[in-house]
Each structure stands twice: as C-alpha cells, then as structure tokens.
C-alpha cells in the first residue's frame, strides 16, 4: 500500500542516456517553452566549437528540459577520425 505522499511525489526522468546535471546557477527557475525549443541547438553548436578550438576532450555540452528545468551533460568527442590537437 502506498501513501498519498508517495503517489504525488515528483519524479525526474532523464531526457536521454548519460549523466545529466541540473543547472540552478544559470536557470534558477523553469525555462520557458520558447527557450527550451530555440536555444539548445545553438548552445550545443557553440560549446562544440569552443571545445574543439581549445582541444578539450569533450565534444561540447548538450542541454535538455525535462520538467522545464534545464539540465546539461557533456557530449563525448570520440568519433572515428577525430584527433586531439597537440600542444
């Protein structure tokens, strides 16, 4: 038998595989639907270019909006033919 508190508890379902982390510093409140639909592709492209330029071992960051809260996870840069720039 479950209690009423357990039935009404909020559940966090990850938006995809991998380890996501909430971003309460930049997004202290829920994001609007406009932001959630418009900005993630540009954010992913910008962080990928940044990571590539500085020779980072990640392929950028990916943003998602489960329950209107902004979450991010690093994307791997392990692709066939990719190389890390030597310093």
Span from first to last CA?
Answer: 61 Å
Which descriptor suits the 3D outline? Answer: globular
Helix count equals 3
Report the portion of residues in β strands.
15-25%
Please mark out the parts with pLDDT under 50 across 5 or more consecutive residues, or reply none: none
Strand order of the largest sheet: 1-3-2
Helix content bin: 25-40%
Q: How many individual β-strands? A: 3
Biggest beta-sheet profile: 3 strands, antiparallel
- Which structural class should the secondary elements be placed in? alpha+beta
Mean pLDDT: 76
The helix/strand series, from N terminus to C terminus, equals HEHHEE
Radius of gyration of CA atoms, rounded to a whole number: 17 Å
Layout of strands and helices, then pairs:
Layout: H1 4-7, E1 21-22, H2 33-38, H3 40-53, E2 58-64, E3 71-76
Antiparallel strand pairs: 1-3, 2-3
What does this structure look like?
There is one protein chain. By secondary structure, the chain is α+β, with helices and mostly antiparallel strands. The model has no long low-confidence stretch (mean pLDDT 76). It has three helices and three strands, in the order αβααββ. It is globular, with a radius of gyration of 17 Å. The protein has helices at 4-7, 33-38, 40-53, and strands spanning 21-22, 58-64, 71-76. 28% of the residues lie in helices and 17% in strands. It has a domain at 18-76.
């Amino acid at each position: 038998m479950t209690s009423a508190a357990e039935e009404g508890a909020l559940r966090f379902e990850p938006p995809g595989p991998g380890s996501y982390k909430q971003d309460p510093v930049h997004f202290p409140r829920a994001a609007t639907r406009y932001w959630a639909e418009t900005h993630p592709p540009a954010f992913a492209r910008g962080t990928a270019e940044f990571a590539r330029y500085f020779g980072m071992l990640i392929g950028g960051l990916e943003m998602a909006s489960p329950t209107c809260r902004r979450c991010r996870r690093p994307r791997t840069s392990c692709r066939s033919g990719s190389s890390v720039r030597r310093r």
